[in-house]
Amino acid sequence: MKMGQQEFADSLGVKRSTIANYEIGRNAPSDAMVALICRVFGVNEGWLRTGEGDMYQPMTPDEELAAFFGDVLSTEDETFKKDFLRMLARLDDSGWDALARMADMMAKKEKD
């Protein structure tokens, strides 16, 4: 995840030394810590414990949206994505209907 021990520890609300001790095998994480890591980072518990299976839990469509919005909103810079989401947030029902019609036209064009 491209984060150091301190950032990882901060995300979990523990000391950096706790993470270091897990990494070197001095201590094993408790079941509660494993559950926390899985919840915070979306990691598959089976993979974390055994290395088998997929590393990440599949996200629900709502979780996928929340993660996308979180990523876009976490940047301090103004970006096209942020501006576009802001524009979408201001649409009324007729604006959403117009977008739906455009999406239908694009989908039809792809089929042809």
Shape: elongated
| Measured distance between first and last alpha carbons | 41 Å
- Classify the helix fraction into a percent range: 55-70%
The average pLDDT score comes to 92
Strand content: under 5%
Per DSSP E runs of 2 or more residues, the count of β-strands stands at 0
Give the helix tally.
7
The helix-strand sequence is: HHHHHHH
Q: Name the poorly predicted regions.
A: none
Major β-sheet annotation: none
Given the helix and strand composition, which structural class is it? Answer: mainly alpha
**Tally of individual domains:** 2
Radius of gyration: 21 Å
Features of the shown structure:
69% helix; mainly alpha; 112 residues; 2 domains
Q: What this model shows, in words?
A:
This protein is mainly alpha-helical. It has two domains: 5-50, no CATH class; 61-111, no CATH class. It is 69% helix and 0% strand. The protein is built from seven helices and no strands. Helix 1 crosses helix 2. The longest helix is centred in the last third of the chain and has 19 residues, at 93-111. It is elongated and about 60 Å long. 1% of the residues are buried.
